Amino acid sequence: MIRNRVEESQLQQLDIAKYYKPASLVQLDMKQFLYQELIIKEKEFRVALTKTNWEDYKDKMVGIYCSVDVILPQWVFMLLTKHLAGVAEQVFVGDYDFLVRMGYLNQLQKVDFSTFQDAKVVIKGCSDVPQGEFVLAQLVDQLLPFVSSIMYGEPCSTVPIYKRKK
């Protein structure tokens, strides 16, 4: 009889890809609001904001950035956020990598990690998601207060990360 020792070990496997929701991440480029890609003209900017279809950002995590190298006054970000409030799920200022990190944090904040109390957890290796190192670090930080051990890799071949002292 063949025994499945992995199944008998009661390991709980986590895949970081489960926390990546690229469809909910949207970038808003300030370039579209610039005059000759150089400056913001306040009056024209305010008019452009009233003509923008904010429903395109409904229930999305929005990252405001500028694809051209200009100095923008801080109030432009405040005005954009005001228009996105109540439409977007969350608004951030930063590049796409920053937006991805914030998306992970947003997903991880929804997880009740106490369900892993005293569990042996294997964080699945080789996930093909951006910012993997960031989410792995955040995941370990969230799990540490609860789990008895954390391993990385596949259940048949893991790297030990943490084991609670008895």
How would you summarize the topology of this molecule?
Blueprint: H1 5-8, E1 11-14, E2 25-29, H2 42-51, E3 61-65, H3 74-84, E4 90-93, H4 96-109, E5 120-124, H5 132-143, E6 149-154, E7 157-163
Parallel strand pairs: 1-5, 2-3, 3-4, 5-6
Antiparallel strand pairs: 6-7
Task: Provide a brief overview of the structure.
Helices cover 31% and strands 22% of the residues. With 166 residues, it is of the alpha/beta class.
Give the tags:
7 strands; 166 residues; 31% helix; 4-stranded mixed β-sheet; alpha/beta; elongated
Explained architecture:
- This protein has a domain at 22-104.
- Helix 4 (96-109) packs parallel to helix 5.
- It has a four-stranded mixed sheet. It has a three-stranded parallel sheet with strand order 2-3-4, with helices on both faces.
- By secondary structure, the chain is of the alpha/beta class.
- The mean pLDDT is 90.
- The chain is built from five helices and seven strands.
User: H/E series, N to C?
Assistant: HEEHEHEHEHEE
Mean pLDDT comes to 90
Shape: elongated
Largest sheet: 4 strands, mixed
